[in-house]
Write a structure and sequence with these properties.
Blueprint: H1 2-35, E1 58-60, E2 82-89, H2 107-119, E3 127-133, H3 148-171, E4 178-183, H4 185-198, E5 207-213, E6 229-230, E7 239-240, E8 245-246, H5 253-260, E9 288-289, E10 297-300, E11 307-310, E12 316-318, E13 325-326, H6 352-377
Length: 378
């Protein structure tokens, strides 16, 4: 009996090693198999022009009824009332492969979105307004394939986001400063908004800062058409903050592959040069910052319904060779770390308090500059 038990243990050990080997060698292929939609692409009709006029198509906006997860704050953090309106585009929360674009009424998708809003959009609620639209997002699998359907799904999702942004601009006061933010798929849509709606327009003067986080930005092929420069100082305005977080040793191959399969915003193919990285611990002032500069990492609770701030949890260093943001040894944040030590889901929570302070400084600096200009004009 003991010998049979030992044989069983040996067989299980071999199976575990084999499974780990398969995951190691074919993890990208298995990920694609699990998430790339098998359904035929179905074109979705554009939303009507007034779709975002009321509250129904918003997860967060001023005066919305019911619980607004973007207005949550952890214990010990006071609600702020900065001068800006924030437009926040949530990341991918539709993980099924039943369709290329997620339906607006999918309960699992909306539940995940509420967690994202609480853990990410909440970093921006120190400002006067936070707006976060619902949109028919591209499925997670759209980022894992070079099929035309993947780009078609992203294009369809962007039309919703653009319509929401135009409604946002109509609703907020015409002289109100604006913060633009998005994570992952939301960051990608934000880059297109910057190109299509902000660059070279009077609106650019109202932009406190843009935070397209968790999506690589090509310095050569994306940045020149966005109309904003990278942030290089904590109180700089009209600039871009962007990073993608990896613990060490980092293996960003899957992310880099997805990034390079799509042309830059200038229509040209991307190359292996480093992507844009601005350090969230010092506002982009330098490439590296120690853990002591981290004002508070938002570690989520096991049920994702709350979280606590941990001061000095992780450092941050922009890697010169790749442009990814390295955070040292893997911190314990929860169960959603992606392969390759990719802390993508935690890009904002890792630096929650610093990001909140960053937005506040830049909004105050924008307001002070406007007040000074008005005084001189008198």
């Amino acid at each position: 009996m003991a010998r049979k038990f030992l044989y069983m243990i040996a067989i299980l050990a071999v199976l575990v090693i084999a499974a780990l080997f398969v995951l190691r060698i074919w993890s990208a292929e298995l990920t694609r198999f699990a998430f790339v939609p098998r359904a035929t692409f179905a074109r979705i009709d554009p939303l009507p022009s007034g779709a975002y006029a009321g509250n129904r198509m918003w997860f967060s906006r001023p005066g919305i009824s019911g619980e607004d997860q973007a207005q949550w704050v952890p214990a010990g953090v006071a609600k702020g009332q900065g001068p800006a309106a924030v437009f926040f585009i949530h990341p991918t929360s539709y993980l099924a492969r039943n369709a290329w674009n997620g339906p607006l009424d999918d309960m699992d998708t909306n539940r995940r979105t509420s967690y994202y809003l609480q853990g990410m959009a909440s970093a921006f609620n120190g400002q006067a307004q936070v707006w976060a639209p619902r949109y028919r997002q591209a499925a997670f699998g759209a980022f894992l394939t070079d099929k035309a359907e993947g780009q078609m799904a992203l294009d369809a999702a962007y039309l919703d986001v653009r319509l929401a942004f135009d409604a946002f601009l109509e609703a907020v006061p015409k002289d109100m400063p604006i913060v633009l933010a998005g994570h992952s798929q939301g960051a990608l849509h934000l880059l297109h908004l910057l190109k299509d709606r902000v660059a070279g327009t009077p609106l650019a003067a109202r932009i406190v800062a843009a935070y397209p986080i968790g999506w690589p930005i090509s310095v050569e092929h994306d940045l020149p058409v966005l109309g904003l420069k990278p942030c290089t100082a904590a109180a700089q305005t009209g600039c871009i903050m962007s990073w993608a977080s990896f613990a060490e040793p980092a293996e960003p191959g899957l992310v880099v592959e997805a990034y390079r399969t799509r042309p830059g915003l200038d229509g040209q193919a991307k190359d292996a040069r480093p992507v844009l990285c601005t350090n969230p611990l010092n506002g982009g002032a330098s490439a590296s910052a120690p853990a002591s500069a981290n004002l508070g990492t938002l570690k989520p609770s096991s049920d994702l319904k709350s979280g606590e701030l941990i001061v000095g949890a992780v450092p941050a260093r922009c890697d010169a060779a790749s442009g990814i943001l390295l955070i040292g040894d893997p911190p314990e944040m929860g169960a959603y770390v992606l392969p390759g030590n990719n802390y993508h889901i935690y890009d904002i929570p890792l630096f929650w308090a610093n990001l909140r302070a960053d937005v506040g400084r830049r909004a105050a600096a924008w307001q002070a500059t406007q007040a000074s200009g008005q005084k001189q004009a008198r």
